[in-house]
Amino acid sequence: MRLAVISDIHGNSLALQAVLDDIAAAGVDRIVCLGDLAVMGFDPAGAIERIAGLDIPVVRGNTDDFLLNGFPDGFFAQDPDVRRDLAAWTTAQLTPEHRAVLESLVPTVDIDLDGVAVCCYHGSPRSYNDPILPDNPAEQLDDWFAGIDAPILIGGHTHRQMLRRWNGRTIVNPGPVSLTFERLPVRRGSTRPWTEYAILTSDQGAIRIDFRYLPLDFDALATAARQSGMPHADWWLKGWEIGAS
What we know:
Blueprint lengths: L1 E5 L6 H14 L3 E4 L10 H11 L7 H8 L10 H14 L2 H8 L5 E5 L2 E5 L17 H7 L7 E3 L7 E5 L2 E5 L20 E10 L2 E10 L2 H10 L5 H5 L8
């Protein structure tokens, strides 16, 4: 069995389609999404619709909840005017049907990977806001994973791909579909923006974890953002400037 894990779409339907095309080519059996579907991107409605159309399990991310119950002050701590405009614009794009999709999202999803239990969440099983990183103290993870027995634990939220062993178990972050917080060395002249996800493969009792990096077309991103009506599109594109030619 092959399980594709995607996370942190953030309204970037172009990056999402690149990932879904790669997933189709890879021949996976199932897909699970770890949340954060719409906020901070040029196509919030399209991203929600595309995910809903897949009929896959989806967990609720922090920004999914913000769209339903209001944005906390901390969301506007950096670049407050820009973020307030983006939050208001994103909220205005959503119909009752989009909100119903967000309402249907759940805190955790459990998947049976050929007899191996996989627990899926956004931040941690306890809270979508918990940032699981390579250097979290073991005592903190003991608290965040209390009551969870699955040997494979997989979540997003931090926008960083990660593989970590803890208490004989494996913690995975597949990386974000949109807005990675890391930069990788690249060959001169190569396409630099990218999107990320992961595939878990079960083969005769063994589990293989593959991290995927896919190139994105910066010019296509720029065109989509600027034509969408998204406020502060050039501000958003600065996050992808490493890909500019």
